[in-house]
Design brief:
The protein is α/β, with parallel strands linked by helices. The protein has helices at 41-48, 124-137, 154-165, 176-185, 198-201, 217-223, 261-272, 289-297; strands at residues 2-6, 15-19, 29-38, 64-72, 84-88, 100-104, 108-110, 145-149, 169-174, 189-192, 206-211, 227-235, 251-254, 282-285, 305-308. Helix 2 (124-137) packs across helix 3.
């Protein structure tokens, strides 16, 4: 089968597109014929060697995958050959930047039926990140106020949709380029962080601050003033310490997204109900993935890109 893999860590040039052996599912595993995999910044970090996830070389990236069940290992129940599925695969194992991928049966859930199967690869890890940040770490509840810093990215737009569905008042910061998309996602107030002082633009404190942007640490610490006493600051930027304020009981939490089959199935249901929109900005061929990694390393990727085998 054709795949993209790397045998040493380094720049995008270590990625190689070519023929590799087709994997065989072991007991408890499922082989899926890949419809698409999704590019994630963590793929870039693992390839470059600065993300501490214990991969084994050579490694095939792409842990967000959609496709069709092709073969079952011994003991697998609940799935059948021909089923359309999506999954957030174990990040340390080979991923879906290939024609076929093998992963544990518990990694897969039925794919949405209301969108193309390939596009569904854009859903798993980013939607799970938004959910876990808001409701698992942030403990967000109906009637509360949420400030999302850096809401113009993919996680931010999922977070807005999920928060509004939970009857939360959403204030979002965004650049002029993404402001319309953030409003369309449902934000109640959009602050242009390139022009306005975010704290000065607020009409009161918030219960939860969700940071999705690579902020200067001093600015991040200053933003904590936006959070009410007893509130929480949640951040997905693991390379920056998440600040709190012990004197006011403001807690801090950093999100490390975890696979959750039941939650992913709930997110799929929301997509099919029309309550959650899956956004794909680009579709590229598998052979183009090394060039996409070069864009990612230079910080030039906007939106969600899926990779078609």
């Amino acid at each position: 089968m054709q795949a993209v893999q790397f045998s040493e860590v380094g720049g995008p040039e270590v990625l190689r597109y070519g023929e590799v052996e087709q994997p065989t599912p072991a007991a408890g595993q499922v082989r899926v014929r890949v419809a698409a995999s999704a590019y994630n910044a963590a793929d870039n970090g693992m390839r470059a060697g600065f993300l501490p996830i214990p991969i084994q070389l050579p490694h095939i990236p792409g842990y967000d995958v959609s496709g069709t069940v092709d073969a079952l290992g011994d003991g697998v129940t609940g799935l059948a050959v021909g089923d359309a599925v999506i999954g957030f695969l174990p990040m340390e194992a080979d991923g879906g930047a290939a024609e076929y991928v093998v992963a544990p049966a518990e990694s897969w859930v039925p794919a949405p039926t209301s969108i193309p199967l390939a596009d569904a690869a854009a859903l798993p890890s980013v939607a799970l990140t938004a959910w876990q940040a808001l409701f698992d770490d942030g403990q967000l509840t109906a009637g509360q106020r949420l400030l999302i810093v850096g809401a113009g990215g993919v996680v931010g737009k999922y977070a807005i949709q999920l928060a509004k569905r939970a009857d939360v008042h959403v204030i979002a910061t965004a650049s002029p380029r993404s402001a319309d998309d953030v409003r369309a996602a449902g934000a109640d107030q959009v602050v242009d962080h390139t022009e306005a002082d975010v704290l000065g633009a607020l009409d009161g404190q918030v219960d939860v601050l969700l940071n999705l942007a690579p902020l200067d640490p001093e600015q991040f610490a200053a933003d904590v003033a936006a959070v009410r006493n007893g509130g929480i600051v949640v951040s997905t930027t693991a390379f920056i310490a998440t600040p709190g304020d012990e004197s006011r009981g403001v807690r801090a939490a950093t999100v490390f997204v975890q696979p959750n089959r039941e939650r992913l199935a709930e997110l799929v249901a929301l997509v099919d109900q029309g309550a959650l929109t899956v956004e794909v900005t680009r579709r590229i061929a598998l052979a183009e993935l090394p060039a996409l990694h070069a864009e990612g390393a230079a910080g030039r990727i906007a939106g969600k890109v899926i990779v078609l085998p």
